[in-house]
């Protein structure tokens, strides 16, 4: 999810120019490593795939309304990281977590809107309720966020996108619901088709606030395995009479998310979590999903969390 709702909202960060450049170089390195394979795959696929892989065109072309790669691998949206593909989805997620200092309930609304074939917009608005150890229970709107996603590499088995997120201080800092400042989070997202119904996703980037003195690096990876829908053959994912996922398509997800404070009061602090989740297509337009997440390591922002959600595909 945008702005990483799996993580507590009150961690303002700052980023200097050399570190920001380093984050983008990581993404460019990933693109360089994957592009030769993407070019080779694209040559054996359809002609416009090669144009995309070479980074030439398609920026203002209409978004192709589909939910799978050119090799019929369905795009599975992860819980804790932003995908590399563009889509038109509306997510309504309910999350409850227990932590050492506070319990939290969050209801998050996220809209992903593919504007063109290569340009997408993401909007998120969370509502939060906290149960603090001192007996207080603040609730209200959290920090809203908007992000621009650019699809840089587009091939049947590999996607690479850049994300530029801007967090707005709409949540109350004094009540623990927001950071109190405008924040930025540049990152890169990658998607890999591993074959045999298995796919992998990853994201790496930084989070920072424009007024604070902290810098945080975040990183995430996910594996997703899609089970055959009712009546499908083992080699088929998609009913080509429609561009949406077939009813009954179920995917199992295993995710890792982590972050490291690189500069600031909590310099060197590492936190991480693992998540096991399921998503299921009820109809071609509606889906449901759920997940269980636990924190790992000595440092923890929370102990465990449960998430359930509703997805609408446009």
Show the helix and strand layout.
Blueprint: H1 17-43, H2 47-53, E1 88-98, E2 102-114, E3 119-132, E4 139-141, E5 144-154, E6 158-168, E7 183-195, E8 198-209, E9 215-227, E10 250-263, E11 270-281, E12 286-296, E13 304-313
Antiparallel strand pairs: 1-2, 1-13, 2-3, 3-4, 3-5, 5-6, 6-7, 7-8, 8-9, 9-10, 10-11, 11-12, 12-13
- Name the shape in a single word: globular
* C-alpha end-to-end distance: 18 Å
Largest beta-sheet characterization: 12 strands, antiparallel, barrel
Order of helices and strands: HHEEEEEEEEEEEEE
Class based on secondary structure composition and strand pairing: mainly beta
Task: Give a count of the beta strands, DSSP E runs of length 2 or more.
Answer: 13
Question: Which stretches of 5+ consecutive residues score pLDDT under 50?
Answer: 1-54, 237-242
- What's the helical proportion of residues? 10-25%
Proportion of beta-strand residues: over 45%
Taking strands numbered 1, 2, ... along the chain, how are they ordered across the largest sheet?
Answer: 1-2-3-5-6-7-8-9-10-11-12-13
Radius of gyration: 19 Å
The pLDDT mean sits at 81
Number of helices: 2
């Amino acid at each position: 999810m945008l702005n990483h709702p799996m993580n507590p909202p009150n961690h303002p960060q700052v980023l200097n120019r050399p570190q920001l450049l380093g984050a983008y170089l990581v993404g460019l390195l990933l693109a360089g490593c994957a592009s030769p394979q993407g070019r080779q795959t694209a040559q054996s696929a359809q002609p416009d795939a090669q144009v995309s892989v070479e980074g030439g065109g398609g920026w203002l072309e209409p978004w192709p309304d589909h939910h799978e790669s050119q090799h019929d691998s369905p795009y599975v949206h992860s819980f804790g990281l932003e995908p590399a593909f563009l889509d038109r989805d509306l997510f309504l997620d309910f999350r409850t977590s227990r932590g050492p200092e506070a319990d939290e309930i969050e209801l998050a609304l996220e809209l992903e809107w593919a504007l063109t074939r290569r340009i997408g917009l993401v909007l998120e608005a969370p509502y939060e309720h906290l149960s603090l150890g001192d007996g207080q229970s603040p609730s209200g709107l959290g920090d809203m966020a908007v992000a621009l996603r650019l699809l840089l590499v587009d091939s049947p088995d590999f996607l690479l996108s850049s994300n530029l997120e801007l967090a707005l201080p709409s949540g109350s800092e004094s009540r623990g619901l927001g950071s109190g400042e405008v924040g930025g989070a540049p990152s890169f997202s990658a998607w890999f088709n591993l074959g045999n119904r298995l796919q992998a996703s990853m994201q790496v980037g930084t989070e920072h606030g424009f007024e604070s003195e902290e810098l945080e690096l975040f990183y995430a990876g996910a594996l997703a395995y899609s089970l055959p829908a009712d009546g499908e053959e083992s080699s088929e994912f998609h009913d080509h009479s429609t561009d949406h996922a077939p009813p009954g398509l179920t995917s199992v997800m295993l995710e890792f998310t982590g972050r490291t404070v690189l500069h600031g009061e909590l310099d060197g602090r590492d936190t991480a979590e693992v998540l096991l989740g399921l998503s299921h297509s009820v109809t071609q337009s509606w889906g449901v999903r759920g997940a269980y997440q636990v924190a790992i390591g000595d440092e923890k922002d929370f102990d465990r969390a449960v998430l359930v959600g509703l997805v609408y595909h446009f």
